[in-house]
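REQUEST ID: PR-0412
SUBMITTED BY: lab tech R.K.
PRIORITY: routine
TASK: structure prediction, single protein chain
INPUT:
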Amino acid sequence: MSGTQETVGEASGGQAGEPVPPRVSRAPAQPPAPSARPGRCSVHHGSARVGTCSFCGRALCLTCAIPVRGRLIGAECLDRVVEDPPEIQVQGPLPKGGDRLAAAAFGLVLLLTVFPWTRFEGGHRYFEAWTFHWSFLAAAAGAVGFAFAMLALYRPRNPWLESAVYAGCAGAVALGALLYRHHPPLLTRASLMPSLALLGGAGALVGVVVKLAGTASSRR
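STATUS: complete
OUTPUT:
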């Protein structure tokens, strides 16, 4: 009988009379989390890798890869490359004072072409400024300048080009009116209209100066 107890004590892993420690049940080991396979994206494991991030070296798929300045960048590292956009300074509308003055001056020249530019005994002829003489240069330049000024008022393009056109038309108006005043048609005398047209050309030149000054001040 004693031999049987000894055998039982040995089988229980201790001497007879000693308490048997309880068995601790171990949970089965969990399988490791799936990692990116070679040639696959580190985030989307089912997508093929198209490159690696230039900063962290992480494998990127077509969805994760963001091309920035010739390099592939992941979304997590994008803030290292992309800087805050510079503040854009919005320019206000250019002043229209010079355009209005030029339009008024050229409009005056056009109005003067309606009235006679010469005085003679036989009477006066209206619209004679449009005949083939020096007055035609002033009339045509006034028409071009007025049309260009109205276009610049409602659909402005290039203020420097517009100023150059104003200056050219104003010079042509002044030249045509001055030559007609000193060289009128045969057996006639120039009326007051060429002198007033000279004033119109001078007013257009003042408009050019005002326009250039306003454009330069708005660009500062």
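NOTES: Residues 97-218 form one domain.
REVIEWED BY: pending
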